[in-house]
Design goal:
- 2 copies of one chain form a homodimer.
- Chain A is an alpha+beta fold.
- Chain A folds into 2 domains: 78 residues, Winged helix-like DNA-binding domain superfamily/Winged helix DNA-binding domain (Arc Repressor Mutant, subunit A, Orthogonal Bundle), CATH 1.10.10.10; 45 residues, no CATH class.
- Helix content of chain A is 33%, strand content 24%.
- Chain A is built from 4 helices and 6 strands, in the order H-H-E-H-H-E-E-E-E-E.
- Chain A has a 3-stranded antiparallel sheet with strand order 1-3-2.
- Chain A starts with a helix and ends with a strand.
- At the A-B interface, strand 5 and strand 6 of A face strand 5 and strand 6 of B.
- Strand 6 of chain A pairs antiparallel with strand 6 of chain B, so a sheet runs across the interface.
- The first copy, chain A, binds a DNA duplex through helix 2 and helix 4.
Chain lengths: 132, 132
DNA sequence: ACACTTTTTTAGAATGGTTATAAACTAGAC
DNA sequence: GTCTAGTTTATAACCATTCTAAAAAAGTGT
């Protein structure tokens, strides 16, 4: 299993559940956006196997903390995650309620001129809302 | 009352509650960020007067729809609103969990190169996360 | 001022995503 | 195998938000 090492290196025990979640998240052809609920359904269908919701929450948060997933800043009743952890941005189609990736090169350089004493910039995220 | 006209022009009846909420939101010296809970407390303290939570939710959403308030896209368990409706962005201090305004001129022009067929750009919002 | 209609307010219940709990289980170390 | 700390699980708890239905207020016409 190729994820055993990855988990161990992060200080996470490679349990059956975590390895299965890794498969679903990181073996996909393309990166994707998901909510916890989306992921639970995907797991059930794809692995024909139920993992407790609590475990899915725990694991997703653990992976996010380790930098294997990113949360997408958007106002919604659910939290959206992204398996694409590269520096990039998002379109949000308000009508379809769908997220679309925007490569960094689609946005051009962003230069933050204001500085805050004693603080470093951790990330710069752009959300472009779309209407018809 | 200066807000009666404003409300009427928006097709909203100028009720006592809506006028009071207008006062708290729009008579402030500076624009500010708030959650519904913040606002409820501010109303209670500032006006010495309780307005039902349901009314506050209704009113804030009505004002947002009319463009008198903006939602701030950020991942939090609560929804953040902004009385500053000008085109601008935000720092988010992860440690203090505090939002700071970023004027448009602090960010420089953002040019979205990718186009989506049949969709118009409604807004471009930048969130800059800060760490120590 | 009054009657009538529509909108608004309200308290409290319901909803639903997320987190906490505590008991059963598992991985890793010796 | 035994032990310990970490993990999983079902379920309960939490809490921001929305719904509900009844009372109150606003607007309109008379």
């Amino acid at each position: 299993m190729k994820y055993i090492e990855k988990l161990r290196n992060s200080g996470l025990r490679p349990t059956k559940q975590r390895l299965q979640i890794c498969e679903v998240l990181f073996d996909a052809e393309k990166t994707f956006h998901f909510t916890i609920n989306d992921l639970a359904n995907k797991i059930k269908k794809q692995l024909n196997n139920k993992i407790s919701l609590a475990t899915i929450y725990n694991t997703v948060h653990a992976f996010e903390k380790k930098g294997y997933l990113k949360q997408i800043p958007i106002n919604s009743n659910q939290t959206y995650f992204d398996t694409n952890i590269s520096d990039h941005h998002h379109f949000y189609d308000l009508k379809e309620e769908k997220l679309i990736d925007l490569e960094n090169s689609d946005v051009g350089p962003i230069n933050i001129l204001k500085k805050i004493e004693g603080k470093k910039i951790k990330s710069v995220e752009v959300l472009v809302k779309l209407e018809d």
